[in-house]
Amino acid sequence: MPFGVAQAHHLNSCPRMFVKMKPDGSSGSCAALRRSVRCSRTESTPPVTEARLQHSEGGVAGMAKLRGLEQKVELLGIDCEDLSRPGFYSNLFCPKCRGGQKVERSLSFHIVQSVEFAMWRCFRMECGWAGQAFADGCKSCDGDYAAIKVSSTVQMTEDSLRLEPLSNKIIGYFAERKILEETLHRNGVKQLSGKQCVISFPYKRKGQLVGCKYRTLDKKFWQEKGTEKALYGLDDISEADEIVIVEGEIDKLSMEEAGFINCVSVPSGAPCKVSDKQLPSPDKDKAFQYLWNCKDYLDKASRIILATDGDAPGQALAEELARRLGKQRCWKVNWPKKDDSGSFNDANEVLKHLGPTALREVIEHAEAMSPTYSEPSNA
Q1: What is the pTM of this model?
Q2: Residue-level pLDDT, tens digit, the chain, 379 residues
Q3: CB-CB contact of 165 with 159 (8 Å)
Q4: Whole-number Å distance between alpha carbons of 64 and 44
Q5: Phi/psi class of residue 188: alpha, beta or left (left: φ > 0; alpha: ψ in -120 to 50)?
Q6: Cα dihedral 30, 33, 39, 40 in deg (nearest 10)
Q7: 92-106 b/e with 16+ CB inside 10 Å = b?
Q8: DSSP state of 166
Q9: Phi, psi (degrees; rounded to nearest 5) at 214
Q10: In degrees, to the nearest 5, what angle opens at C-alpha 375 toward C-alphas 369 and 376?
Q11: Which letter does DSSP use for residue 49 in this model?
């Protein structure tokens, strides 16, 4: 029977890194001393702007490309300020381990001469954080347009990911979307440490953190490198006979406001259209690997409601999911009309504009996808 990652998007935010130091030089909560993560230089250098123009290919256009690349890494806490130059290696403070007890500059950072990508690695044995960031429009080494790829040799924890409790600003952002703070807390939603407001959605399996997806308030997304290809909210369907699948973490939270805790979200975007090819084998079905990785959870469900987005890619996603899960146990949601111009697009839109009761009714009136299915008779 048929069964039933996200690539990162462009980032344009620029946080700054703060390191608190005790009087004896060790890290601590005394004296909030701002340590700018600047590039180390031993040779004499020309003025900053002149040097950066000189070493970035493309003149002023190259400088814009360089600044965009720097903004991507600054979002992760790597703060080059205005001293980084393409083609040079720099010793910076690692935002993950903060240089350890000695607060040493353990992060080797390098922007290639062409300004197509930056790479870094922390050489502290206890850390090992490494990664790459790619300029807008530049492909990564494995052929995709990922903005950031990071990895670490340490076990993934909230501390290693620099997660912290939600700020009032982000709580207010969710409140505008009718999602309560209690719901955020139950799902472990946090934010990335730093000045920039970056929401973090933890991916867990049996209570264990197996990944994290990030979202800025202006809808830019990326995943922590090493994130398991799995459904978001997986533990909520561990014993469910009926489940709901949505297209986004915020939609999963919205479903909970309507009373559907037995809901999961796909971790990545929707296809442009339904494929006309035969289904690949599970080991080659890369775009939907998250389904196969959660097969033991999904096999328990006798009824699966697909509440993907109402646009063309969302509808294509519903069809592709049904092909793998088996149409005989799939139902599809039809989002209500918004106005004469069209319908609501997803669960959060319905929750925000019509309320939780209306959202619940939409789910309860989902239609069977199998043409041979008929509702059981009351006779």
Answers
A1: 0.64
A2: 455 433 333 333 333 333 333 334 443 433 333 333 333 333 444 444 454 445 445 556 667 778 877 877 877 778 775 556 788 888 888 888 888 878 888 888 888 888 888 888 888 877 878 888 887 654 433 333 345 555 544 567 888 888 999 999 999 999 999 999 999 999 999 999 877 789 999 999 999 999 999 999 988 888 887 889 999 999 999 999 999 999 999 999 999 999 999 999 999 888 899 998 999 999 899 999 999 999 999 999 999 999 999 999 999 999 999 999 999 999 999 999 998 889 999 999 999 999 999 999 999 999 999 866 545 444 3
A3: no
A4: 25
A5: left
A6: -70
A7: bbbbbbbbbeebebb
A8: P
A9: -115, 150
A10: 145
A11: H
Instruction: Report phi then psi at 125, rounded to 5.
Output: -60, -35
Q: What span, in angstroms and rounded, lies between the C-alpha atoms of 212 and 231? A: 11
CB 285 within 8 A of CB 323: no
Three-class HEC string of 210-260? EEEEEEECCCCEEECCCCCCCCECHHHHCCCCEEEEECCHHHHHHHHHCCC
Question: Among positive and negative, which fits the CA dihedral 87, 93, 96, 101?
Answer: positive
